[in-house]
Write a structure and sequence with these properties.
Order of helices and strands: EHHEHEHEHHEEH
Shape: globular
Strand content: 5-15%
Number of strands: 6
Length: about 240
C-alpha cells in the first residue's frame, strides 16, 4: 500500500489554471514518439480532477491546444485530437459521478468535425452538473479572446444594445470565452518554462503563478500539493498594502 500524505488547503482556491507543458520532452527522454507524451498527458487529467475535488477547487482550466499550435505537424495535431476524444469517451462516467461540468473555451469552428462533436456531446451530457467545472481551452488564444470580445462589444454598441458607460472591467468578462467563471487564483505551468504563452491573459490579472520543473505527464498528486503549498505562502494583496 502506498501512503498518501495528508494535506489541508488553508487558502481557498476558486479557479486553478494549468499550462500542461513538457509532454514531448517527457516522451523524448524515454525514446518514445512525441505524440505518446500527449497521450499520457490526457491520461493525467483524471488524477488532477480528483485532486481538485479533494481540495474543493471549483474550476480547473487546461490549456489543451492554442491558436499557435496549428503550426505543429499535422500528424501531431491529429494525435492530440484523437487523445482528447478518447479522454471524453473514456471518462464521461467519471465526470458525471464527480459532478463535473465540461466547458470549452476557444474557437471550435476550426477544430475537425469529429472532435468538435465529441466536445459538444460532453458539454451536453454534463451541462446540469453543478459540483465542479473542467474548462478545456481548445484552439484558444488570450489575445484572440480579447479581440473577439471587443468586436462583440463594438457591434452591440453600434446596434444600440449597450452604452459606453455600461462597459467596465466586470461587464467585459461577459464577452469572454470564460464568461461566468471566476478569475484565476493559481496558474500552474509544468516543465520549468516561465511564461504565459498567450493563456487566459484577462483572467490571470491577479493570479499567483507557480512554475514547477515536473513535466505534465509526471504531474501527480504530490506535485500538485507542492504547488498548493507554494500558493499558501503567497500574500495576495490585489494591488493593496499588506496588513501589518
Amino acid at each position: 500500500m502506498i501512503f498518501m500524505a495528508s494535506f489541508t488547503l488553508q487558502k481557498k482556491i476558486g479557479h486553478v489554471a494549468f499550462i500542461m507543458d513538457g509532454n514531448g520532452r517527457w516522451a523524448k527522454l524515454r525514446g518514445l514518439p512525441r505524440h505518446l507524451g500527449h497521450k499520457r498527458a490526457c491520461e493525467r487529467l483524471r488524477d488532477v480532477f480528483d485532486c481538485c475535488v479533494e481540495f474543493n477547487i471549483h474550476v480547473a482550466s487546461f490549456y489543451a491546444f492554442s491558436t499557435e499550435n496549428w503550426n505543429r505537424p499535422q500528424e501531431e495535431i491529429d494525435h492530440l485530437m484523437d487523445y482528447l476524444e478518447d479522454f471524453f469517451h473514456r471518462e464521461i462516467d467519471f465526470l458525471m459521478e464527480k459532478g463535473i461540468k465540461v466547458r470549452i473555451s476557444g474557437d471550435l469552428s476550426r477544430i475537425r468535425e469529429q472532435t468538435r462533436l465529441v466536445c459538444l456531446e460532453a458539454m451536453e451530457k454534463t451541462k446540469d452538473n453543478t459540483g465542479y467545472i473542467a474548462n478545456i481551452c481548445l484552439n484558444y488564444g488570450g489575445r484572440d479572446e480579447i479581440v473577439k470580445a471587443s468586436k462583440r462589444i463594438a457591434e452591440e454598441y453600434k446596434q444600440g444594445k449597450i452604452s459606453l458607460d455600461s462597459i467596465n472591467e466586470e461587464s467585459f468578462k461577459a464577452y469572454l470565452y470564460t464568461a461566468g467563471l471566476p478569475d484565476v487564483d493559481l496558474m500552474i505551468r509544468t516543465s520549468g518554462e516561465q511564461r504565459l504563452s498567450n493563456y487566459l491573459l484577462y483572467e490571470n490579472a491577479y493570479a499567483e503563478f507557480v512554475f514547477t520543473k515536473v513535466k505534465w505527464p509526471d504531474f501527480d498528486r504530490k506535485a500538485f500539493i507542492d504547488c498548493l503549498k507554494e500558493y499558501q505562502k503567497r500574500d495576495r494583496r490585489f494591488g493593496g498594502l499588506k496588513n501589518e
